[in-house]
Amino acid sequence: MGEHKNTCPVCASSMRPIGGCYSICKTCKYMMSAEPPGAGAEVVSLGAVREKNFRFICRVIKEKFSSLDLKTVLDVGSSTGHFLDVAAAEGFSVTGLEPDARLADETRLRGRDVVAGFFPGADGIRGQKYDVVIFNDSLEHIPNIQEALRGIKAHLGEAGLAIVNLPTSDGIIFKASSFLYKLGIKTPFGRLWQTGFASPHVHYFNLRNLRRLFENNGFKLQYSSPLRYYTIKGLWPRISCKSPFLVSFFVWLALILLYPLLRLRSDCFVACFYLPRI
């Protein structure tokens, strides 16, 4: 994984195994998986919810940080290029970085600027500076989190902003899946970690330990907000793409019934961190 799996990368406390390939920090509740990392996009039917979240994030950059005059954006793990399309339409000069060469090529053919490679060592971004480095559902897939933080510092300009959009271990769905996992019902928990997918999660954060991680490395949290975790549109193909029909049906039905409640306490969030320069 690139980091000592018995030591928490957030607070350096001991990690406690919780079964399977998972472990949790005894102190800050950061969670880790020993699942081998990978590259690629395999979760389907996320277009509707990502469209709403990406437009919201662009508004946040423009309205909350207007004094910084942020123009250039590096999208780490740009996948199919959805955020590149939204950000370009909002007037940003945006570059994608995508480890899956096929996805990078397909997005480049649509006219977007995409570099193929892994963050932060890709040759195509070497020496480049950006006003914003953003991780849209990608930071939790990068095995060496400290190397990623060093890369953010290296690629941020003088008025730089790091933005992280990712799922949270404080969410209702995650907590319910954790409870079922303890009872021996492991499928929902594994699904949230994307176990068996091309690019599984290797980290699970909440806002508290993510803030601690970044602030331990010189950043300052400037803004955070819940994001939409799912929409009714596209929910069935998203749920059923990797699960048996009966399991998919009951999960889909539960999420439909709980939708109003889950909008009040989402399973994902965005956090914006400023890097002060001495």
Characteristic key phrases:
278 residues, alpha/beta, Rossmann fold, seven-stranded mixed sheet, four-stranded antiparallel sheet, 11 strands, globular
Summarize the structure.
This protein has 278 residues and is of the alpha/beta class. The protein contains ten helices and eleven strands.
Structure description:
- Helix content is 35%, strand content 22%.
- The mean pLDDT is 88.
- Helix 1 (47-64) crosses helix 2.
- The protein has helices at 47-64, 82-89, 101-109, 145-155, 172-182, 187-192, 207-216, 235-240, 245-257, 259-264, and strands at residues 15-19, 22-25, 31-33, 72-76, 93-98, 113-116, 130-136, 156-167, 203-204, 220-226, 268-274.
- The two termini are 32 Å apart.
- The protein is built from ten helices and eleven strands.
- Helix 2 (82-89) links the parallel strand 4 and strand 5 (93-98).
- The chain is α/β, with parallel strands linked by helices.
- The longest helix has 18 residues, at 47-64.
- It has a seven-stranded mixed β-sheet, with helices on both faces.
- The protein has a single domain, classed as Rossmann fold.
